[in-house]
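Progress against Task 2.4 (sequence-to-structure conversion) is shown through the following example record, which the project officer requested during the mid-term review.
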Amino acid sequence: MRNLLARKPDTVVLLLAAYFVVAFVVRLLVPNGLRVDESQQAFFSQWLVAGYDTQPPLYNWFQAMVVSVFGLSIATIAASKNLVLFLLFLSYYKLAKLVLDDRLFAAIATLSLFTIPQVFWQAQRDLTHTVAQMLMINLFIYSIIKTLKAPSLFSYVMIGVTLGLGMLSKYNFTLVVSGALVAVLLHPEGLKRLLDRRFLMSLAIAVVIFLPHGLWLLDNVSLAASRTLNTMAQEAPSGAFAKLIKGPTEFFGQILVIIAPLVAVYAIIFGRKFLRNLRPTTVWAHFFDTIFLAIGLQVLLLVFAIGITSMRDRWVLPFLFLMPIAFCLKMQARGIRAEDFAKRFFVVPLAVMIVAPSLVFVRANVPTLFGRPEAYNAPYEEFVSKILAEEGKRPGLVLTDGWVVSGNMRLQLPDVPTLCTFFGNLEVDYEWSAEKPILAVWLTSQEGSALQPDLDAWIQKNLGTQYSGVAVKHMSVGYVRGRAQDQRLFSYAWIYPRLRS
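C-alpha cells generated for the chain above:
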C-alpha cells in the first residue's frame, strides 16, 4: 500500500473509503450501548426543529433525516458518522490538492490527520458537531481559495452555502470566518473578490440558510449559551489574576496536546529539514498562517473578555486540524521532495488505521482486559427486555433525566416517544393509558425509594402532584461481556393513570 500511495496519491481516496467501511462494520460488531454523542443523536432524531440545545442543528438535522428514512438503529447512527468522516477526509484531500502542487504532499497532509488522536480516535467514537464543523471548514476554505484563484458564479454560491451551513455546525465557526476574512484581505486578489457584486449574493445565501435557526436563537440565547459558558468556567480559581493566567494556559495547553503528536511524527520523518522550514514562504502558506494567527488572537480575546478558564480539546481541534496542509506547504516551498519521505511517513497512518479499529473492537468485546467495561457494554438491551417481560406492557412514553439514558432507551424502544428533563424545551406527543403507562428510568449508584428530583418535578407538573409517590423499582444488570462484579444499577418506575374519584 505504501508503494501504491507513493506512485498514485489519489489512491488515498479508496483507502479512506475502505477504512471507514471497516470502521462502520466494527461498530456493528461491538455491543450496542451508545456513547454520549451517539445517545444524543438517537434522542434528538425524534425531532426536526429549528433548534435543540447549546449546539447548532446541522448534524442533528442530518441524523434525523437519515433516521426518518432508514429507521433508528446502530447501523444508521454509525453509517451517518462514518459517512461524514469520509467526506471530511475527502474534502481535506481536495483542499490540499488545491494549494499543493505535489499530490503526494496532499496525500501526506490528509493522512497526517491519523497522527492527531482527537481526529482518529475521539472523532470516530464520540464527536458529531465538531466533525460536521471540520467538514464545513474544509468546504468553506476550499470555496474561498477557488474564488481567489478563479472567481465564478458557482464559487461565490459555494461560499454562501458553506458559510450558511458552517454557521449551523458550531457557533465558533464565526472565528474561522473572521480569520478567513483577514487572510482574504491580505491576499493580493482578496479585496477585489470581496468588492465583487457576487459576494453580496454569497452573503444573502448564507443568511437564508441560517435564518430559521437564527430566529430560534434570538428567542433561546440563554439556552444556547449558558451551559457552554458554565462549562468553560468550570474549576475557575478564585483570584482575578489566577483566572487571567488560567485561561490562556488552558488554550496553549490544548494546542500542545493536539499538535504535539503531529509535530513529533514530522520531526522524526522529515528531520531537521522540517524544523528549519516553518516560516511562511508562499502566498498560500501565508494565507493559512494568517487564519491560524487571527483565530488564536480571537480566542485569547474571548478568554479575557468572558473569563474562560476551562477548555476541551474538541473545542480547539477545528482551529488546528488544517495544520498539516500548512506544514506541507512550507516544506514544498523550501524544496523538500515528498517522494524522498513518503513511504517512510505512510507507515505511521497505515499503522494507526489498523490499530484504532482493532482497539475499539477488542476494548468493547473483551473489556476484562482493560479492567472495566465502557459505554458500549452498558446493558440497556437486557434491562429493557427484562422489565417489559416483568410488567407485560410496553410504555406509551419513556421519561429520563439525562440524554445518555434517553438515547439508549430510544434505541431499544424506537417506536416509543422519549422525553428527557434535561431538554425541557423539547416536547413530544404520547399516549398514556392503562395499556401504555409512562416508564421513568434513571441511573443511580444505590437503591432508594424516591424518584429522581427532576423526574418528580416533571411528573408533578405534567401529571399532577398525586403521581409523585409512585413505587420505585431497581434492577442490577451485568455489563455485556463484563465480569460478574461489573453491574449497572437501573432505577425505574411505571406510572399508570388513576381513575378520578
